[in-house]
Prior knowledge:
CATH superfamily of the largest domain: DD-peptidase/beta-lactamase superfamily
Protein name: Penicillin-binding protein 2
Shape: elongated
CATH class of the largest domain: Alpha Beta
Largest sheet: 7 strands, mixed
Distance between the termini: 147 Å
Organism: Microbacterium invictum
Mean pLDDT: 91
Pfam family, one: Transpeptidase
Structural class: alpha+beta
CATH architecture of the largest domain: 3-Layer(aba) Sandwich
Number of domains: 2
CATH topology of the largest domain: Beta-lactamase
Low-confidence stretches: none
Number of strands: 23
Subcellular location: Membrane
Main location: membrane
Amino acid sequence: MTTRASRSPRRRTVVALAVVLAVLVGFIVRLVDIQVVNADEHIEDSLEWAFSGSRDLHGSRGAITDASGNTLAGSILRYDVVIDPKNTGDITRAGEDDVESTLTWPEASGLIGSVTGQEADEIQRIVASALAADPADQYEFVQRGISTEQYRALADLELPYLTFEQHPARTYPDGAVAGNLIGFMGTDEVPLAGLELSEDDCLTATDGQLRFQRGKDGVIIPGTEVEDPAVDGGTLQLTIDRDLQWYLMQLIAEQVQDMGALSGSIMVTEVGTGKIRAAAEFPAVDPNNVAASPDDDRRSRIFTDWFEPGSTFKALTAATVIDAGGQNAQSTVVAASTETFANGARVRDSFVHPAYNYTLTGVLIDSSNAAISRISESVDPQTRYDYLQRFGVGAGSAVEFPGEQTGLLRPAAEWDNQTVYNTTYGQGLTTTLPELVGAYGAIANDGERVPLTLVEGCTAADGTVTTADAPEPVRVVSEDTATQVQQILENVALQANYADEIAVPGYRIAVKTGTGEKSDPVTGGYKSGAYFTTMIGFAPADDPQYVVAVTLDEPTKVKSSVANAAAFQQAMTQVLKTYRVMPSTTEPPVLPKFG
C-alpha cells in the first residue's frame, strides 16, 4: 500500500519535468519563429547593427544598335580596386613542400602598382594616410576603373586585403561611326550629347543593392546577404545601317579634304518610310576619345546647323506653281540673265544669257534665278509660303535630336520686294538638311511627306518593345504634280552640265544642286566667296526608293555645287548596291529645255 509520503516526491518530480518540458517547448517554438518563420525579418533587423554593410549592384546601360542589331554603343565591366588598410601587412604563405614564404607589404604594394600603373610608394601612402586618419579604416580606393585583364591579374595575387567592386562602363566598338549621332558619356557616366542624352530613359539601368553583415574582421558573414537586384537598361535600335554609315563617313571625309571645305555631310533616307539610313559627317567625334575632338566637332552638324539652300528650293517652287498656279513641266517663261520686276526687285543668274523662252523643266536644268522668279508670279507670295510650310521648311524634323535647329521662314507678310523673289530660289530664308531631305522625300513619295525617323524603338530588359509616336504623313502636292517634278528633276540629271559626273549606270536618277551664300556676322551681309553647296536627289527616278543629299561648307577648290558631284555619285551608287535596288528597265521621258 502506497503511502501519502511516497506519492508526494513522485508528484513533485512529474510537475518539475512538465515545467522543464514546457520551457523547452517554448524555447523551441521561439527558435523556429526566429530562424525559420520570421528569418527574413530578423536578418533585415540584424543588418542595422554595428557590423552591417552594403554594396551597390550596377545594372548595365542598354546597348545602341543599328537597324540590323549591330552594336554601336555597349557596356563593359570595369573594376574599382578597394584595399583594407587595417589588415595590410606581411603575408606568410605555404609554398611547395610546405615551405613557408613571406610576402612583405612593400613587396605586395609593388606588385599591385605594376598592374594598376602606380608606384609602390603611392599605394603605401594611400594606406598610411587612411590609417593616420582612422586606425580602424577598412575601406579605401587604390584605383578606379581598371580593365577585366587588370582585375584578373590582381585577383591572381590572392591578397586578402584587396577586394573589387565592378561597375559598367561605356564602349563604342566602331569608334567614330555614327559618333555624332550617338553622342557620348561623361567621366561620371552621365550622358552629355546625342542619342545617349535624348534616349536616356530607354538606356538607363536601375541599380540594386546587396546588404550584408560583416564580422569583426570585416569578412561577410555567410547567409546574411539580402539582394535587391539591378535592372539593365533597354536596347535602343536605330534606323541607320552601320556598314553604309561607315562607307559614307569615309567618303565625305575624303571629299571635304579634297575640296578644302570646312565640313561636309551625307544623308540618306528611305522614301516610303522616312527612315534615316545614314547620316554621315566630317569632322566626326569618336565617343571613346571625346577629348581628341574640338568642342565644335562633337555635335551633329546635320541636325544643329542651318543654311540658305540656294537652288535646291527651285524644285519646291516648281511644285508650287504646278499644283496651285496652273503650270506644268513644259509651261514656258521668257527671261534673260537679269530681270527687273514691277516692284523694283532685280534678279540675276550666275551666267550671262539673252532672253530665253524656257520651259519650266529648262528653268531647273539651267538653274535660272531670273526665270524661276518670273514663273513664280503665277501664285501669290502667301500661297508659296503655305506650300513651303507644308514641305516642312522651318519645322525641324520629327527626330527631335538634341539641339536640333529649325529653318527660318518668315511669314509672307514680312517679305520685302526683293525677298518675294529671292525665296523662289532659296535665298532670304534658311533650312536644315533634315528639312530639305524631308521636302525632297515628299516629291519622291508622290507628294506625301513622311516624317523622318532615326529610332526604331526601345526594347526593355523584360522584352517590352516601345516605339516612338511619329506624326502623320502630310499631303503636300497632288500625285500628278509630284510625278511632273520627278520628271523635271530627272531631266536635270540628264541634261545639266554635270550630268556625266553623277550618272549611275543602269539607273534613272533625279537631282538638283544648290549653292547658297553664307552670311557674314561681321558685316551683316553675305561673306564674299564663301558658299554652302548642296546636291540632293533620289533614285530610281521611275520608282523612287532613296533620297541622298551631300553638303559641303565653304569648299575652296571648286566653289559651286559641282564640288559635290563625285561624292553624290558614289554615295548613290553605294546606297543602291547596299539595298539591292533593281536597275531601271524603262527609258526616261526627255523633256524640252526651251519652248
